[in-house]
Structure formats: structure tokens, C-alpha cells
Amino acid sequence: MSCIHYKFRNNSKHDTIQFDGSYITVGEIKQAILGQKKMGKAPDFTLQIINAQTQEPYNDDNQLIPRNADVTVKRIPTGNRVSKSQLAAQSQSLDMYKMSNTPRPLAVTMVTHYMII
């Protein structure tokens, strides 16, 4: 049984992914980490896998990583998130439209469908 040691960039504890064979793809590592850490099936971020020794990112999900390698994992937001300050500003403008009986612009209408994390 082969393994890959990984840690999140802001964490000092290493975790392990076990697999059969001499190599594992970057995509398989990402799926294993999402499952191991119970991060959900459709997160609002993507994982970037970085070689812990050279600090070079693995950019292709089909790239092979040899067994017993150490990697660092970084969460990258996908851009669908709305910050609390943005939401507060949009909520204020939405309240103005409710009071004035004018139709809301499309941008304000669309913002109400985002999830806040």
C-alpha cells in the first residue's frame, strides 16, 4: 500500500492518503482529501496541490505524483462567494428599492441567490 502525505498550508499536522500503485493523479488526491475532510461534493472552492519540497503547484489534474511524496494543499475560492460587507451594502440598496416602489435592477435581484459562508 502506497501513501501521500499532505497538509493544509495553515496547518502543521500531516494527514495521509493511502492508495494502490506507484503513482496517483492530482485529481484523485483532490477527491480523496474532499472525502477525508468531509468538505462536500460541490464546494465553493477548489484545492491547489503544491509540491512541499519545491513549492511548485501541480496544475494538471492528470499529473502523476509518486508514492511517499509530501504535498501542501491550498483552498482557492471559486468566486461565487459574497463577503459580508458586500452583502450588507446590497441589502441596504435592496431596502431602498422596497421603500421607493421602483423596480429592482437585475444585479440586485441576482445577488439574493448567493450562499454566504
Shape: elongated
Q: Tell me the span between the first and last alpha carbons.
A: 37 Å
Strand order of the largest sheet: 2-1-7-4-5
**What order do the SSEs take from the amino end to the carboxyl end, as H and E?**
EEEHEEEEHH
Main sheet characteristics: 5 strands, mixed
Unreliable runs = none
Q: State the share of residues found in helices, binned by percent.
A: 25-40%
Q: What is the SS-derived class?
A: alpha+beta
Gyration radius, in Å: 20 Å
What's the number of helices? 3
Strand content: 25-35%
**Overall strand count:** 7
Task: Give a brief rundown of this model.
With 117 residues, the protein is of the alpha+beta class.
Describe the structure.
The chain has 117 residues and is of the alpha+beta class. 29% of the residues lie in helices and 30% in strands. The chain has a five-stranded mixed beta sheet with strand order 2-1-7-4-5, with helices on one face.
Topology summary:
Layout: E1 2-8, E2 15-19, E3 23-25, H1 26-36, E4 45-51, E5 57-58, E6 64-66, E7 70-77, H2 84-100, H3 106-111
Parallel strand pairs: 1-7
Antiparallel strand pairs: 1-2, 3-6, 4-5, 4-7
Task: Supply database-style keywords.
3 helices; 5-stranded mixed sheet; 7 strands; 29% helix; elongated; 117 residues; single chain; 30% strand; alpha+beta
